[in-house]
Design a protein that fits this description.
This is Putative 4-hydroxythreonine-4-phosphate dehydrogenase PdxA. Keywords: Metal-binding, NAD, Oxidoreductase. It comes from Leptospira santarosai str. CBC1416. InterPro entries: PdxA_fam (IPR005255). The protein has helices spanning about 10-15, 20-25, 70-75, 80-100, 115-120, 125-135, 160-165, 170-180, 210-220, 240-245, and strands at about 1-5, 30-35, 45, 60-65, 105-110, 145, 150, 190-195, 225-230, 245-250. The chain has a five-stranded parallel β-sheet with strand order 3-4-2-1-5. The protein has a three-stranded parallel β-sheet with strand order 9-8-10, covered by helices on one side. It folds into two domains: about 1-135, Isopropylmalate Dehydrogenase; about 145-250. About 35% of the residues lie in helices and about 15% in strands. It is built from ten helices and ten strands. By secondary structure, the protein is an alpha/beta fold.
């Protein structure tokens, strides 16, 4: 399953550029695209309205009905708005509804949190949190690459609120998530990053490492995880450090 994301953003372009691969995958499993109907789809896509219409393989498309034709016509590429934010959230919500009924993997194309919030959803923080709430489960984000795994401890949180969010983390759920994640090589140490410059310099540049992060590291070690830190964040993303770490745990969401 794939959501369109913001129909005025880069999501539709990513979808088009992925069509060759999606057509190959659809020969062995179904691909279902949830979208606004703003763009025409290739003839291989079959329009459906319910989960029962989806077969074991093929390309399928489902249009959500949150926007009128007049509203769809008013959308402009590169100009996201409250309407495009409303559309993005509608596609995501519908995909989750289908996933709950029939299972399957979910790929979410980019949306603008600003525009989802502007559309009348002030509590929206992002895909990760929305999915966690929909499934009523504790969820952690993992950004996974060939030689780099990054698990941010907080997501989409204003920097000033990070310490209170860190204090609220369910450490048992965090440890269980790391232990059960097949993408993390537990034979290597986990690099646990600090919040303050130089990981606080022993409490001289902020107390968060001493008061919050070091107890977290100790807990994870007691659960059998090889954890190093808190480490100065700017020292960990070099090539050698990356290769020697099973996973990097920053305290804030980062893009690398």
């Amino acid at each position: 399953m794939i959501t369109e994301g913001d129909p005025c953003g880069i999501g539709p372009e990513i979808f088009v550029r992925s069509l060759f691969l999606l057509k190959k995958i659809s020969k062995i499993r179904p691909i279902v695209y949830f979208h606004s109907g703003r763009f025409s789809l290739p003839k291989e896509f079959v329009s459906v309205f319910s989960h029962s219409e989806i077969s074991e393989k093929g390309l399928f498309a489902i249009v959500h009905d949150s926007l009128s034709q007049k509203e769809i016509s008013s959308l402009k590429s590169g100009r996201p708005s409250a309407l495009s934010g409303k559309s993005a959230l509608a596609a995501l919500s519908l995909s989750i509804e289908f996933q709950k009924k029939g299972g399957g993997d979910l790929i979410t194309l980019p949306l603008g949190k600003e525009w989802v919030i502007t559309s009348g959803n002030p509590e929206f923080r992002g895909h990760t949190e929305f999915l966690a709430e929909a499934y009523r489960t504790k969820t952690f984000m993992l950004m996974s690459g060939n030689d780099l795994q990054v698990l941010p401890l907080t997501t989409h949180v204003p920097l000033v609120k990070v310490p209170e969010f860190l204090k609220a983390i369910d450490l048992k759920s965090l440890a269980d998530s790391i232990l059960s994640c097949g993408k993390i090589n537990l034979e290597k140490p986990i690099a646990f990053l600090g919040l303050n410059p130089h990981a606080g310099e022993g409490g001289k540049i902020g107390k968060e490492e001493e008061e919050i992060l070091i107890p977290m590291v100790r807990f994870l070690k007691r659960k059998g995880l090889k954890v190093e830190g808190p480490l100065s964040a700017d020292s960990v993303f070099g090539e050698s450090a990356r290769k020697n770490s099973a996973c990097i745990l920053p305290v804030i969401t980062i893009r690398v």
